[in-house]
Design goal:
There is one protein chain. By secondary structure, this protein is α+β, with helices and mostly antiparallel strands. Among the domains are: about 160 residues, Jelly Rolls (Sandwich); about 160 residues, no CATH class. About 70% of the residues lie in helices and about 10% in strands. The chain is built from 21 helices and 8 strands. Strand 4 and strand 5 form a beta hairpin. Helix 5 packs across helix 6, helix 6 crosses helix 7 and helix 19 runs parallel beside helix 20. The protein starts with a helix and ends in a 6-residue tail after the last helix.
Length: about 525
Amino acid sequence: MLLNRFRHPIAPHHQMVLREVPLLAGLSNHELDTLNNVLHQRSYVQDEIIYDPQEEGQAIYFILAGKVRVTLDGQILGTLEAGQFFGERALLENMRRHTQVRAIENCVLAVLFRDDFLHLLHTHPQIADTISQHCSLRRSQFPELEQNTIQQPPVLSENHGPGPVAWAGIITTTCLLLLIFKKILWLVVPFLLALILYYLLAPLEKKMVAAGTGRGIAAVALSGAFLMVTVIGLLLVYPLVVASAASWQAGIAHYSAGGAVLAEQLVEGIQEKFSFLQTSHFGDNISQQITDVSEHFSDKYLGKILSGLATWLPSLLLTPIITFFMLKDGANFRKMLGAAVPNAFFEKTLYLIHAVDQTARLYFVGLMKMTVIDTILTTLGLWALGISSPLMLGLTVAILCWIPYLGPLLGFAIVALVASTDMPGNISVIYSLAGLFILIRMLDDFFFLPAIVGRSLRIHPLLTIMMFLVGEAIAGVAGLMLVIPILGVVRILGETLEIILKDTRLQARHRYSEKLRWRAATRDMDR
């Protein structure tokens, strides 16, 4: 008997419960486990409203226990019980709800968010066919639903964004968060790197889970592989860095000497055009200062750079650990947030969680697109001007451009040093480089950046530029890099909160639900 028990293990409780839903009965155990990670379990008391007409549909509901009643304009259309589902039509047709659903006894429902539901239909055509047949049957049984649907506009037609008061709160909250993040930058930086790594690895994890790998195993494999590649890379690069330290020092001195000559030529040219600068000692000893910096770089600056890297190393080691838990427990974290919200606001919360995740994802995808565009444009421009190693310099400049304003200046200085050393005395090349960088920055700041990043976050281009300046004033370079993603996330929070505060029906439903729960909890206390 004991052997048979080991050979035929009892299925987990959530699998047995989900198999009671006919629509999901054909899924494998692994598919049910995967689905369970994105399902939210909700409890409703008798007479509690699940959703109203004209609400935006964000989820489909599966009845695990209890019964619900579906009505339209006070007319009862039917009663649904355990094993059945509802709410799918608003998701499939992108329309508002057209019926009211109310619990007629205590119910337990499993709720699946819109995007997870549409992904389920895409990966399981048999479920899509069943739901399509189910919708057709309901249309034939209740033709009044079709007439009611025709009169409704699409969901997206009434989205006007936050109002002036909400925007004031959003911008104020963004500034306060920048002040806080400036104080805990040692934790923000590894978390930000982990978030970027998470969005890079999440598609791979999704494919591994779809192929049958457990989510925990996939998270361990991906984060472990990244950590292993990083460690191997450091072990391989470190000896090369040590062996090439002398040649790098000589290279720095070589290019700095070229930069010193360039600086002298530029100062002389400026003094010739503006004679009053000659008497003001403008640019005196500038070449000597550059030479001193290059000759004493290792003595004065290299130690500080290495000590700074050593200071940041412990916090940067948190990156793969944070990434692992994001991959492994991201779904559980979303379910925990959803469970903390009352039923009346639950669908809005599902949308909020998804929108925040999508906002961060789109921002970093936009940032990667900007890096590719800047690399291509800079490489082509440097190649056309005859600068050596255009691809490597172009990639370096593109990565430095992650730091708005300051990064492009540093990139230009590096390229100017290379150009002045490879082409000594050719001032026209430096002017051409300046024109190239100005053109690329204008395209980035006034076209690519607002169009790709700003549009991804639904932020006006003018506000995007203004918030860059605010972020730099509050938190320096860190503020420049963090202000836009923070603003995008806070915007979603503020917009959703404004909708909830202005929706008196949702607030009335919440108070009514609390009364029902209090009445049920105190029912036998008068005896």
